[in-house]
Amino acid sequence: MNNILVVDDNLVTLQQINALLEENYEVSLAKSGSQALLICYQIVPDLILLDLDMPEMDGFETMLKIKKNLALKHVPIIFLTATQNTEIEVKALKNGAVDFITKPADKDILQHRIEVHLNLSTYNRLLESKVRLLEDSIIASFSDMIEYRDESTGGHVMRTSKYVQILAQELFRREEYKSELTEFTVDMMTRAAPLHDVGKIAISDVILLKPTLLNDDEFNIMKTHTTVGGEMLRNIFSKVPGQSYHEMAILIAECHHERWDGKGYPKRLKGEEIPLCARIMALADVFDALVDMRVYKRPMSHQDACRVIISEKNSMFDPKVVEAFESVQDQFSEVKGYRF
Q: Are strands 3-7 and 47-51 parallel, antiparallel or unpaired?
């Protein structure tokens, strides 16, 4: 049975709507916007009926706060209003409402509107799920191609994706970079991370699989995997538009070898000029390179790799990202021991 949250500061209206709906739905009642938010922390309603005119926090402010919560972002909101005003209706629809119902509500109209938007919401969630599966299939296919090209880095793309997730979640928990980090962007970073080395597909095997350190000319060619990777992703996503992670994937591919001190490549970006997703990816990438076996070197111990990462605070890496790493370094060890 679907759960309908009804929000109205008028107790009589709440009781009336509850009486109209309780036979067919589980109904939650809230007398204010703040009480509605508290209820939403406990349950995720399938649809919200929201009064427009309320003291302290009106319907617009309440809806804004609801939509900021990733778990509630796609919950349909129908505004309840005692008066018809075209300008207010347009504003509400532009800000995320799906419909209006005039109070006092007619039972048949109310239930019909609710059913229409519940069905649309179910269809949209199904469609988004299928799109996400398609997106993840694209990522997995490219990740496999990268791994097949560079056999010396087996598991690298999936491990670094997990490292990025751990770091981004820790930064989010610490409320660092609050304007950039949300539950949504953490998810997008995690999903985009496996594409960071996609440009290596264009690098010659002579260089990519060389069993010794690269000379300067070879290293300059290897560096091009960043710009090549970004361009490849732009071309791909221009033909398959709509991927929610594509902009972040391009930034990560192009900028994950930039350094906090400006001595990286390819653009020699410095500090916060470097996109946050790439700063997180940079640490994850280097850590895995340190602890992994490569044809030209033996793996470093977890403790030694951690010391190297921490020593590069303010030089190679964003200091806030390093501080987050210090808190979660044990989780990195667990990931390294897991076989993907």
A: parallel
